């Protein structure tokens, strides 16, 4: 029995279905591309910030610019188009979260409190600087609405035998900041000072999130090695589960556990996908840079689909 596809929800998620010219219109989508950190435009931030009434750190938009996954949505959509171009019998369901992770992270269990970032922990579901009860209630409602929509999307695609791609982007360096708290903007300004920024450890250009902390593989069989080879051959320096892995606080982990062998998550270094790395300022994806990576991801995904 097929599961209905989710519908867009204003200010929560965009949903788009792309079908190739040779697609069976009665078949479920072959691939889901879910972008839980897709709210990467200043307008996304301003819209939700205007709905929050409690006190928040001054200039919090600077944290938004550093921490948002700029180009993840552009990369995801470019990958969908590349797949359909190469395999016109395929169809792709795209889901873009419109809720900025500055306020609530839709790739986290909502009540996850986070941990020391400089020791490898992840940012929280709702940051500690959001204290107003009405604000927290609003954010929990938005989070729940998005997660339910994503759950429906994974059921409709992966539950029917398809695959999912969950693309993220991250900053080029692991900044020496241990917590997301009231001092986050001050600490970011310190860490991103031009005299200090390049002293922080450089991250892998691509990090494939294919395994949990125990090393158990959850990604489609064979795709980890295949992408490592393809990315290396194209001049990238990829790693697998290096900066991050499939952490149980993330919904990427939850979807991978629910649909083992059907979900691929990955991180791309943001400075490779934008016109210039300006950590405290707005940045825009460069289409050609996203397409370069998409043309490597699409063939690997197509082969994984063929092996189903």
TrEMBL record:
This is N-formylglutamate amidohydrolase. It comes from Enhygromyxa salina.
């Amino acid at each position: 029995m097929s599961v209905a596809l989710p519908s867009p929800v204003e200010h929560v998620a965009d949903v788009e279905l792309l079908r190739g010219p040779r697609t069976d219109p009665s078949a479920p989508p072959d691939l889901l591309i879910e972008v839980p950190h897709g709210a990467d435009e200043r307008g996304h931030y301003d819209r939700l910030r205007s709905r929050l009434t409690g006190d928040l750190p001054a200039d919090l938009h600077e944290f938004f610019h550093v921490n948002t996954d700029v180009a993840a949505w552009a990369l995801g959509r470019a990958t969908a188009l590349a797949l359909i171009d190469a395999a016109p019998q395929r169809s792709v369901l795209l889901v873009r979260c419109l809720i900025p992770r500055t306020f609530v992270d839709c790739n986290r269990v909502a009540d996850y409190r986070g941990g020391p970032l400089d020791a490898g922990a992840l940012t929280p579901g709702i940051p500690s600087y959001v204290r107003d009860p009405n604000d927290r209630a609003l954010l929990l409602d938005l989070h729940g609405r998005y997660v339910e929509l994503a759950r429906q999307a994974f059921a409709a695609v992966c539950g029917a035998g398809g695959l999912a791609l969950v693309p993220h982007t991250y900053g080029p360096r692991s900044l020496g900041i241990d917590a997301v708290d009231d001092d986050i903007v001050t600490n970011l300004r310190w860490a991103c000072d031009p005299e200090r920024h390049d002293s922080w450890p450089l991250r892998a250009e691509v990090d494939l999130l294919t395994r949990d902390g125990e090393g158990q593989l959850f990604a489609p069989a064979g795709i980890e090695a295949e992408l490592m080879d393809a990315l290396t051959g194209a001049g990238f320096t990829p790693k697998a589960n290096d900066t991050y892995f499939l952490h149980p606080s993330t919904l990427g982990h939850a979807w991978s556990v629910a649909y083992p062998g059907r979900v691929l998550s990955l991180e791309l270094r943001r400075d490779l996908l934008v016109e210039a790395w300006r950590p405290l300022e707005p940045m825009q994806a460069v289409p050609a840079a996203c397409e370069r990576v998409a043309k490597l991801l699409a063939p690997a995904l197509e082969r994984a689909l063929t092996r189903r």
